[in-house]
Write a structure and sequence with these properties.
Number of strands: 0
Helix content: over 70%
Strand content: under 5%
Mean pLDDT: 88
Distance between the termini: 68 Å
Oligomer: single chain
Number of domains: 1
Largest sheet: none
Length: 95
């Protein structure tokens, strides 16, 4: 018997007892809520990972531009990274 058939059979037995049916429905709602929270967390994690990856890529570009001798104001203008961050990256590279 497939999972759908098993669920129908369980629901048929449980529905004969109002209190059991109520517990069954509460359990199903809880499982559904838990699944929704897990899916939400996964999506949030994907978004955060994408943002972090983009930031790392941008900083790598800044480092490469500095290695090529580009001036900090120009690097900032071209990448959108603030001058303080670029200066800190340049100091890290020099150490």
């Amino acid at each position: 018997m497939g999972e759908s058939g098993e669920e129908e059979q369980l629901l048929s037995v449980v529905s004969q007892h109002p209190e059991s049916l109520r517990y069954y429905q509460m359990r199903e709602m809880g499982l559904s809520d838990m699944t929704s929270r897990i899916n939400y967390a996964k999506n949030e994690g994907k978004i955060e990972g994408k943002i972090e990856g983009e930031k790392e890529g941008q900083l790598k570009i800044v480092k490469n531009m500095l290695r090529e001798g580009m001036e900090i104001p120009l690097v900032s203008k071209m990448t959108g990274v603030d001058i303080h961050t670029i200066t800190a990256l340049q100091q890290q590279e020099n150490n």
